[in-house]
Design goal:
By secondary structure, the protein is mainly alpha-helical. It contains five helices and no strands. It has helices at about 5-30, 45-50, 60-75, 85-110, 110-135. α4 packs antiparallel against α5. The protein starts with 5 loop residues before the first helix and ends in a 36-residue tail after the last helix.
Amino acid sequence: MILFSRSFIRKRAISLVTTASVSATSFALAQDPSRMYHVHGTMPVQHVADRPNHSDEQPFLSENDAAMSKMMADMTIKPTGDVDRDFVAMMVPHHQGAVEMAQAELKYGHNEQLRRLAQEIVVTQQQEITVMRLAVGDELPPAAASPTQPGAMPSPANSDDAGSHSSMNMK
């Protein structure tokens, strides 16, 4: 007499293997949180920033780490069943993270070529955010000054402005 069908055993085996895999991954991440960045051999910026030879770079690294952490948290969504809306819900924080990282480069960076690239990143990523939101029928937030307008971004010498790292939106 057969107690369990092959289909039942196969489903239970797959379930057990999946559970074991998820448990092992969770345990590995708990042991080495640097793995959450998905690139072997890299460390989250807060670990690098703790070294004394990077003290001048600390504000930049802190802002980038905050942008990355916020981006990763905001990209975790509850699926709605609407692929397009879910795509936008994940991509907008991804693009906003790029904007915030580029703004940190504008605030602290010295290389003019990289600063121009950072300005382009801010503009193009915000344009893409606008296009995505409009494509799914979302309303746009109120407009703010463009980061390429004079006075929109503080110069590196004035980097202690309180509102300098707030997100900006396209007109």
